[in-house]
Amino acid sequence: MSLAKPPHVGSFFGQSVIALAERLRAGSLTSVELTQAALDSIERLNPTLNAFVHVDAPVALAQARKADELFAQGLDLGPLHGIPVAVKDNIDTFDHVTTYGSAHFAGFKPSRDALCVQRLREAGAVIVGKTLTHEFAYGPTGDRSLQGAARNPWDARCITGGSSAGSAAAVASGMVPLALGTDTGGSIRIPAGLCGVVGFKPSFASVPLEGVFPLSSSLDHVGPIANHVEDARLLFEVVAGRVCAPMANPRPLRVGWITTGSFGPVDAELDRQVYQAAQQLFGEALQDAAELVPLAAEMKDTLLVLQRAEAFDVHAERMQDAPHTFEQEVRERLELSREVRGWQYIRAQSSQVRLKAAMARLFEHYDFLVSPSVPITATAVDAREVRVGEQDIDVRAALLSHTSAWNLTGLPAISLPVGLLRGMPVGLQVIGAAGEDDRLLRVMAQRFVRD
User: How far apart are the first and last CA of the chain?
Assistant: First the structure.
């Protein structure tokens, strides 16, 4: 896929981590130089894009000098050694303020790293700063946070999508080559789709959540945002604590295009563009998959109950003691969450088990399912209604419509950038069977190549 450039662009736009790592090892580049390039890009672009909410240049450069010293001693900690990485602000870092996007935690500094961050450090990565999250990761737009709205590198008047808003903007603009995000209903894949980068949500529980502020315990995932699928795989391997299995004997693929409209309205031009991209990637393996039409409503309703009940569990005391410290829109979502009854939650848990089993049966007939990542392009910051075809629909519902089913069922899913529509990025989502993360990443790295 060819790469147009957004108007707001930094040193790492489109850059391959694998290529940077080769130059580090060849001695033609140092980690200090890479980290300084990231810091310079952040200083230049962040006043416009608001992707980073906390950066500590001396801390980042000290990490980079350490990485260079280890290289000089002949010690190589792996492919991310010396590479600058950004971390979403709902993931704990002991050396950076971590606010979870909320005034409730303004100025808060965790006492220890999240386990995924600890693994990043052990792999020699340089953590340059924390990226904006929608408050408590409870929103798909990325424009409701203690620190304001993150802005799209392709048009700073528009949203990035959320809740991993800053991470997507930071990679899409080239401030950093890699970032860590979280995904509870689409929070990696939505901003990846709207900003034109690769975003991977692994299978449920494949990356530890220890030290990640919870939104919904049965739906939360941690994963990478990157320029290239191979780079996403490298970051996934580090935070998952294991190496992806090599590709087994290739066999003919069976790929299901999720029937348009199964999960709600889709912009017709966007749908055509994504379908054409799917045809280019998969050719004759692509076939129509209508099986999700009867399941879509139950999937949406089940996720909504689980997420609301689990989110309110996290915030019940804050809602009682200091409700007006929440941003208004997030507080309103939590007030709705308060209404979920115990019996509804129990039924939703049963429904989740049933739907996971239904997906296991469906994936006996398909290797992958594909759809648009998001059925619209990025809307204006603060917009809450969008015209799709002949109807006006809620922006937040539209953003979540094609991604959240795969949180509910815990399946691995990746958003790939497949060009621009009316000047804004469009994403193709590819979904794999439960636990088939390695195959999904290996196949897509082979087939999806950005120039």
Answer: 6
The CATH number given to whatever domain includes residue 406 is 3.90.1300.10
Q: What are the tens digits of pLDDT across the range 247-285?
A: 887 789 999 999 999 999 999 999 999 999 999 999 999
88 among known catalytic residues: yes
What's the count of helices (H) and strands (E) in the chain, helices before strands? 14, 13
By the 10 Å C-beta count (0-12 exposed, 13-18 middle, 19+ buried), 364 is classed as: exposed
Overall domain count for the chain: 1
Spatial CB neighbours of 28, under 8 Å, sequence gap ≥ 6: none
DSSP state of 246: P
Active-site annotation holder among 11, 31, 88, 203: 88
Q: What is the distance, to the nearest Å, from the Cα of residue 215 to the centroid of all Cα atoms in its chain? A: 15
Q: What is the pLDDT of residues 333-354, one digit of tens each?
A: 999 999 999 999 999 999 999 9
Cβ(51)–Cβ(132) below 8 Å:
yes
- Identified catalytic residue from 31, 167, 173, 187: 187
At residue 286, the 3 state secondary structure works out as strand
Q: Is pTM, for the whole model, over 0.85? A: yes
In angstroms, rounded to a whole number, what is the distance separating the alpha carbons of residues 269 and 424? 12
- Please tell me which residue in 31, 163, 216, 415 is annotated as part of the active site: 163
Q: Is the per-residue pLDDT at 450 higher than 90?
A: no
Q: Containing domain of residue 293, as a range?
A: 1-451
E strand or H helix that includes residue 313: helix 296-321
